[in-house]
Specification:
Blueprint: E1 14-20, H1 26-40, H2 47-64, E2 71-78, E3 81-88, H3 114-121, E4 124-130, E5 133-141
Antiparallel strand pairs: 1-2, 2-3, 3-5, 4-5
Length: about 150
């Protein structure tokens, strides 16, 4: 795991939970929910990074799990940032999320960089088993007020 354990997180000040279709159509819906959640409350987390990482998690859930079972997006605003989770029906861990791959990504391949981005851009990330599969998550810290775009 990259950072603080999931059990150690503070209580959320606001949260959203939504079922998404098990299709590529879920990606823009998930991005929009994260953007709206962070903008409506004028939350300090970087929404561009949150959207990018959310898109990676949702796309991975859709691509790497079989069936029609909806995936679930959970967005939590925390006192020091935000946490985004994507729940899917496959209990298998998500590749090399918490243990970096020793090989460099092939620059000519379309795939293979999503988990690298999540590890590199989040303050922490990980996965956990759920009753119906797994949840893969990342956290982003709040951006200091003086560095936020106007």
């Amino acid at each position: 795991m990259n950072g603080t354990a999931l059990q150690d997180r503070p209580s959320a000040s606001a949260s959203w939970r939504i079922a998404l279709p098990h299709s590529a159509a879920a990606v823009p819906v998930a991005r929009a929910l994260v953007r709206t959640a962070l903008a409506e409350l004028e939350h300090g987390a970087d929404s561009d990074t949150a959207e990018l990482l959310t898109a990676e998690l949702v796309a991975n859930a859709v691509e790497h799990t079989a069936g029609e079972t909806p995936i679930e997006l959970v967005v939590e605003l925390l006192p020091g940032g935000c946490q985004v989770e994507v729940h899917d029906p496959d209990p298998a861990p998500p590749g090399n999320l918490t243990v970096p791959d020793q090989r460099e990504p092939d620059p000519w391949q379309e795939h293979g960089r999503g988990l690298l981005l999540i590890r590199a851009l989040s303050s922490s990330c990980g996965h956990r088993a759920t009753e119906s599969g797994k949840a893969v998550w990342f956290r982003l810290p709040s951006v200091p007020q003086q560095r936020r775009p106007v």
